[in-house]
Amino acid sequence: MRTSLNEIKEIDDHVLGQTAPDEALLFEAKLIINPGLTYKVMWHKQTLALVQQYGRNSLKAEIETVQQKLFSLPEHAGFRQKIMRLFLKR
Amino acid sequence: MTHEIVFDKPAARREKLITELYQSAFPTVAKYISKMGGSFDDAKDIFQDALVIYYEKAVNSDLSLHNSEKAYLLGIAKHLWFKKFKGDRHNLPLDSCTKDFDVTDETEDQPSGVKLMRYLETAGKKCMELLSAFYYHKLPMKDLADLFGYAGERSATVQKYKCIEKVRETVKEQSLAYEDFIE
User: Fold this and answer.
1) Closest residue of A to B133, CA-based?
2) What is the pTM of this model?
3) How many residue pairs bridge chain A and chain B with CB atoms within 8 Å of each other?
4) I need a labelling partner for A30 at 20 to 30 A (CA). Which of A38, A65, B46, B162 fits?
5) Which domain holds residue B126?
6) How far apart are CA A4 and CA A84, in angstroms?
7) Residue B66 DSSP symbol
8) CB A83 to CB B161 under 8 A?
9) B49 and B124 share a domain?
10) From the list B18, B44, B116, which residue is nearest A50 (CB)?
């Protein structure tokens, strides 16, 4: 892997808490002497937060698709009636 | 030509799981919400959030929740109901537990988060799919390689880091642009 990708791997391991103990100290030292690295760690965390949100958004969309299938397809009519009956009385 | 089947596997697996959870747990949750005076839409919203929490818990721990999924989902749903409609900010006894149950969208806190997400959903879709398969759905590297058509785990790993580099660059540009803007 090229150097920049190796650095990304190091940052990723650090952010995920997967750095080997002997390398962890070295990474901490690098953070102190290299302010640019601190920024990279920050952007990396923001990137992972976005990825997390992206994954969650797609999961929500998948859940909504299932919901729509269950509440529209004829084979789920029994299930649908069972649920709708709960909200009829009021 | 097994490749096309492989491609849909995780998504198809998730659809099956979500459908099963709906069938086994939604009636109980809906009954509870109805009893508490909630509407069908309340039940739907709460159950969908509960599913997200359940899923994230399940992929993030080795703990198998399979036997108690119904009880677990009902427990989360009750908590969410309480938080949404009955929750008094000054009187939340379970405050320390709520952080586990937080489904707040992280991007909404950042001024440029929504715009950035919209950009990544289009321009960086392939990378976002790859990265979320790994970091969100926690698929093993081997499955990821098959799914995205890489020769092996190693090339999929390299691609993963390249994708981080690409997305991170966008994040960086955005944050620098924002700094310029507020100065």
Assistant:
1) A55
2) 0.83
3) 117
4) B162
5) 107-182
6) 56
7) G
8) no
9) no
10) B116
